[in-house]
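ok so I'm stuck.
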Amino acid sequence: MPIHNETELFCINPLAADEPANEEAPKDPAPQPEATLPPPRAGNPRGTIQFLTIIGQVEGHIVLPPTSKATKYEHVIPQLVMCAENNEVDGLLVLLNTMGGDVEAGLALSELIAHLGKPTVSLVLGGGHSIGVPLAVAADYSFIAPSATMTIHPIRMNGTVVGAPQTFEHFKKTQERVEDFITAHSSVTRDRLQRLMMDTDQLAQDVGTILIGEQAVQEGIINAVGGLHDAMEKLYALIGK
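replied:
not stuck anymore, here's the structure
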């Protein structure tokens, strides 16, 4: 019986012996072919650009119907703040194709772009009308496509209007805010801007002026005529400085 117990114990636990078991060493795994692996992604040596599109109508405090294309300012403001705070972003390119919209929302976005703290370039594609003008000139440098248009006109108000002197004063102050911003961030003079806004020969049943491509540059509102490549090259140059 004792011999049987020793044999049973030895069979159950063979590693209890003083000498280690004779086992083959594990083989190294076969190396993977490096040619099939994608190369590591490298950052753009000229700088990292963030794109911001402002399309349709700039929506303010009143929600537009679902059939209207709109840029909601409460969505764009956080994007601009994150762009300013993100160390990996070197510059901002604003692409505009807007019919205008809420004045306060448009001015809020314009002020953020103008004081972003990083190089900014804007490009008007299609149209940059109404409050789209301050949005376009807010950047450090602005471009307009040859076929793009900009409509310069006074501010308007929808809904109930109280027929009182205070209403006129409110309109006047709001108009001055828009004019102050445009003249501060472009080369157009206030007198010329007001003449463009009050022109009665171009718009049917309205006052204002339509500027196409090069005309916006000649008036001193936009810096240059160009496309996406021109805008990106200019932004890279500003980042390099």
